[in-house]
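User: I'm putting together notes for a lab meeting next week and I want to include a structural view of one of the chains we've been expressing. I don't have a solved structure, so I'd like a prediction I can at least talk through. The sequence is below, exactly as it appears in our construct file.
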Amino acid sequence: MAEKILILDRGNVELALPRDWTVKPDPAGFLRLEDGTEECLLEASYMAPPPIPPGEFDVSERLRRVLETSPDGRGAPVTRVDRGDLRLAWADYPYESDDPKRGRRRPARGRWLIAENGRFQALLTFYYWVDDAAWAVPAWERIVATLRLGFGEQLRSPLEHWSMREPG
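Assistant: Thanks for the context. Below is the predicted structure for the 168-residue chain, given as structure tokens.
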């Protein structure tokens, strides 16, 4: 699958997207990332939170608290994964939504993920129709597998990013 690299905040957040996905800023302060068919939606935001004392509000607890604000996500089981210096917590839940293309309600899935490394935190929310799971879930898994958070050493130019350097 051909990919493009999305670099945010001069390298402090990066992830790979399928090449046909579009990236649009949303006035609410996050990015809308859509597949070419507009059948699934990924929203991404990030921040540099103040230091959190060890043992208080770990990444799983933060996600649980965010999920409590969503009627559909409330009570969804949270999975935590540590990947090097990155701590991830994610949840998956079912819901129904109106499909404007088909003019009816359809079963859908939502996935919310918080990733943090002690310096930055990213929130990804992903929504897709259940009958698109065969391609939507692998796309999500690849995006999450490529998610990286930096440590504040910002790139001076996009050409400094590893994906832009000449092999050698």
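A couple of points you could mention at the meeting. The longest strand covers residues 86-99. Residues 3-156 form a domain with the Protein Transport Mog1p; Chain A fold (CATH 3.40.1000.10).

User: Perfect, that's what I needed.
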